[in-house]
Amino acid sequence: MLESNRIEYKRELNKDFEKSVVSFLNYAGGGDIYIGINNDGTAFGVSEIDDVQLQIINRIRDNIRPDTLGLIDINVEKKDDKNIIRVIVSGGTQLPYYIKDKGRSEKGCFIRIGNSSQSMTEQMIEDLFVKRKIITLNTMVSPNQKLTFRQLQIYYQGMNIDINEKFFENLGLLKSDGEYNYTAFLFADINGVSIKIATYAGKDKTDLIETREYGYQCLLTATKNILDRLDSENRTYAKVTSTTRIERERINSIALREAVVNAIVHNDYALGFPLIEIFANRIEVTSCGGLVPGLTIENLFKCRSMPRNRELMRVFKDMNYVEQIGSGMSKILKVYKPSIFDINSSFTTVTFPFEDKPINSKEIASEKNRQKMLNVLSIINEKPEVTTSEIAEILNENHTTTRRRLIVYQEMGLISREGSRKTGKWVINRVVTEQDDDEQ
Q1: 201 and 295: one domain?
Q2: Hey, what's the torsion of the CAs at 361, 365, 366, 371, to 10 degrees?
Q3: Fewer CB atoms inside 10 A, N or C side of the chain?
Q4: Is 429 among the domain residues?
Q5: pLDDT per residue as tens digits for the range 108-125
């Protein structure tokens, strides 16, 4: 039996394996790949049969998109008394399939022509993508039907939103036949969804420090944990004195938060899960799937949005993670240029460069003034009848400077004086805000 449009032989598991799998996935009816057979059809054999099977499983799972679950089977067979591996590939429905690192492009998409795997043209890729069956979170069945939603219900109770017998139906967690869909799976207490945060020592991926997974739980909880982690990663400190530190964000926190929430809400979960990568000079937020069909890049940057996952948008909006359609993009573009976006047919990546500028003298002065302001309010709070001289002594400054300081604070509306200079007392009118730094 020679190689054909349905059969391919490989002496060993080589670098072109994924290319062959993709070509059969994109070919009507699929085909078989035999590992351990020479090109002429004679048996070579596979020595480490279990190890090679595991490699095949991992490479298909990690390197090919969309998900091939249910489309591939792996069998061990005998030929001339030697072990060989037969990989049975069915033709897929979510065309075109592609090699993850190459994306949905001519370098990543292949199809079987004769007895070889050939690159697909751009037009072939577009035609297959347009014709493929549209799958939404609402129509995808949950891989687990024994789901619980305690976390989700607690979130809704915390927002004083009524939970009734229509709760699951109203949130779009059920398919038309009553089964839980993939939206339900994402919001379940336990699921198989994992969003990774990878941290690297340098500016590229050569030195990975750690990878943390946030998931396997309600998507709202995972999102909260991710945002908390990034909030701590996004802060840098410059020491001014032994008691004072100036805190500064390396990335605009509002824009970063919106990019992360957008990545989670608009991700194409049929292709994979979002990924966040922290480098020495930037943070990259990547989601699966390019633009939603019908949405152009021009309209995207005009903050006109078409939600990919309407059910997710509904729940995240209920929890105040999103305000309205397009608002997230508006907040990002208010601070950053569109060039931070890299959008193709397979992925959307937003790159936020760190802004580690040196702390200047104005910021230092502002922080010192804020600290003085807080000290004065603390003194007054403990002893409202405190005198100007007593405040000056505690602050270790002369009486005139303190008197001027108190006058400024009164003009700012922070404090006021009740009664006479000798028998009266100070009253705190409000708390200190960031705007107060510029008014001193």
Answers
A1: yes
A2: 140
A3: N
A4: yes
A5: 999 999 999 999 999 999
What tens digit of pLDDT does each residue of 15-68 get? 999 999 999 999 987 899 999 999 999 999 999 999 999 999 999 999 999 888
406 and 432 together in one domain: yes
* Pair 334, 416 in one domain: no
Same domain, 345 and 386: no
Structural domain of 387: 361-439
Q: Supply the pTM of this predicted model.
A: 0.57
Domain count, the chain: 3
CATH at 377: 1.10.10.10
Q: Would 279 be classed as within a structural domain?
A: yes
Of the three residues 115, 131, 147, the one that is the final residue of a domain is 131
Within a domain: 160: no
- From 76, 97, 131, give the residue that closes a domain: 131
